[in-house]
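Hi R.,

Here's the chain you asked about this morning:
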Amino acid sequence: MPKLNEDALKKVISYDPFTGVFIWKLHHRKNSLLGQKAGSINTCGVRYIHVFGEKYQASRLAILHITGTLPDYAGHKDKDPGNLKFNNLYASDTPIKTRHNNIPKKTQKKPNVDHLILFCTGHSIQN
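And the predicted structure, written out as tokens:
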């Protein structure tokens, strides 16, 4: 397997920095069909893409695709993990503080629907 770098990434995925959309250029895996949107979105709205046997946050791959450097962490200026437009992203050497970092550890270990919504959106639902 090739090591992930800008050239290797650009051989398998195209990225539009104005829309934030990743498209498969090659049939890379069982679920990666040529011309289809790359990756999957988790319950908190973060897109992940499997490339060369590893799972990466799409925001990190976007920065690699444009700058040639894979950051340790990437954040969204508008706090929307679905907005992968390049002008909305920033790289960091340290973990990005997100809303779910403020949830007590006890809640993170055993979430219910209300806590899951708080974890993902920063808002809770009143019953």
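The beta strands are 13-16, 21-24, 40-41, 47-51, 54-57, 73-76, 89-92.

Let me know if you need anything else.
M.
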